Amino acid sequence: MVFVDSYPKTSKLVRSEFIVAFVALGIGALFGVIQALHRTGAFRGFVSSADYYTLLTAHGVLLALVFTTFFIAGLFAWAVSSSLERELPQRLAWPAFWIMLTGTVLAAVAILGGLFGAPSVFGHSLSADVLFTFYAPMKAHPAFYIGAALIIVGSWIAGAAYFKALWEWRSDNPDERIPLQTFMVLTTMLMWYISTIGVAVEVVVFLIPWSLGLIQNVDPLLTRTLFWYFGHPVVYFWLMPAYLVWYTILPKLAGGRLFSDPLARVVFVAFLLLSTPVGFHHQYVDPGIPEGYKFIAMTNTMFLLLPSLLTAFTVVASLEHGARQNGGSGYLSWLRNLPWDEPAFSGCALAGLMFAAGGFSGMINAGMNINYLIHNTIWVPGHFHLTVGTAFALTAMAISYWLVPQLTGKPLRQRSLAVLQPYVWFVGMALMSNAMHRAGLAGIPRRTAEPTYDEFAFQGVAGTVAEMRLQIAIGGFLLFVGAALFLVVMADTLLARRGGTLSVNGSIPDPLSGPEHSPRILDNYKLWTAIALLLIVIAYGPPLASMVIDGIFAPGSPPIPV
Ligand code: HAS
Ligand code: CU
């Protein structure tokens, strides 16, 4: 039976989450191409350089925060409901959706107000050019911070719906192992609860009162630290849903089965333990944080590579298994036996391939000394367009080709556009991100409309600056085309009448090695959460304590040994 007929209520919820996500994707992608053209000087007619920062903030917030959170809420709702075989508790899930939507509208109005002369609303000018990493000392209209807080609170309530579904399932199935997809969702949510405490404190205790004028000063170091306490784990909040897809659905699309369920559980537990005590790797250049604690963050980050390296092994092994079921052979020629004309498959596989490159640039970012070379250069956007902008975004688009028909009962329309779309994204991103990485090595800064300075010539380490700019402009344009193709396919499919036969079904074949091959302790959430919290206390306790002791509203930092 199709998902929409088995679980009509949850289907409606997932469709609503996806529609908000897709609208955010469309607007965010439009702002993205405008920026790419502006920054590279290819075409500067859309906005002034002053408005560039408004677009940049909207681009980052709509894509990295709104598109991701709503898509993930939908994907998780589907994954929990289908793997526990029940409707999601609607009384929690719908309020979560509406709260998140209210927050999104508030934040979007606050940002876009900047394009209309930042009119005064409630005594504060309506603008929020604070970028998606919205820490002090840049200040936004209170509506922006209240909106951000509502998005977070909504996501917490959405998480409560998944846990409630698990408890209901548990009372019917006291001795069974938690199904893998639900296990992955809940582990991600535990990580999310722990890490969002940082941004919640930042926003509620400091930024909202500060933007309302209730307090005059905030400590930039403290708010940055609270932000990055959340800002690193949030990237795994984007990655783990992509992994859920790669582990549980991609092997089936390749014609095979997951290689190992226990290894998948180990990977998710490792993320729960290690995602948070690493945030200082975004603050290597911040004064006021002892070098020793930056070193601990670096070491933890290097350990945190492990779950992704295990994933590369398990997922590729599962794909190879699938290809060999389809007659593949040889060391590498089995790659030809994968369904490259199936957009759900090709999108996820290409996203995985690009993530291998993005993970590699992440390893470079994480090195305390090499980081000084690339920090605040356009290398960093090069890195995150491969990770969140491809590993997550392309996986989300690709799996929509597979999920949306099951959520609507309508076959995918415009199939030929869908087949083309992942390749357009891949080529666009290959051009844009490689040039961004190289431009970063030449020292070209990020977060600016005017990346070149008068009387200063950047020296390309590999290639010329003009060639890199051209590649960024062409790549950015192709990415916009890629997003537009996806949205056309989705709009046409969602608006079509129900009819015709579906060529997809949601059944997931059993893994080659199932959960019975792993110890039950892996499913012990209390234990893993306790260890995760302990690691955070070790990594953050003393530096945070000294920031608090020197006055939480006092700008400045603890004395720095020179
Ligand atoms: Fe990062 C900055 C370090 C992963 C996102 N990162 C950012 C920022 C973002 C971001 C948004 O240490 C910028 C924030 C800002 O605005 O300032 N990152 C890392 C490390 C990893 C990493 C060590 N990042 C991510 C992921 C992201 C993301 C995932 C989003 C989803 N990152 C950093 C650091 C900075 C940073 C520093 C600060 C830089 C600075 O100075 O500002 C690791 O988790 C990466 C591990 C990944 C691997 C790759 C494994 C390969 C796999 C592919 C398998 C292949 C398949 C395909 C499935 C080791 C899993 C098979 C197909 C076939 C056909 C066979
Ligand atoms: Cu990070």
Automatic annotation (TrEMBL):
It is a multi-pass membrane protein. Its main location: membrane. Residues 18-503 form the Cytochrome oxidase subunit I profile domain. One of its GO terms (molecular function) is heme binding. The keyword Heme applies. The chain crosses the membrane at residues 18-38, 58-80, 92-122, 142-163, 183-208, 228-250, 262-282, 302-323, 344-364, 384-404, 416-436, 472-495, 527-549. It is found in: Membrane. PROSITE patterns: COX1 (PS50855), COX1_CUB (PS00077). This is B(O/a)3-type cytochrome-c oxidase subunit 1. The lineage of its organism: Archaea, Methanobacteriati, Methanobacteriota, Stenosarchaea group, Halobacteria.
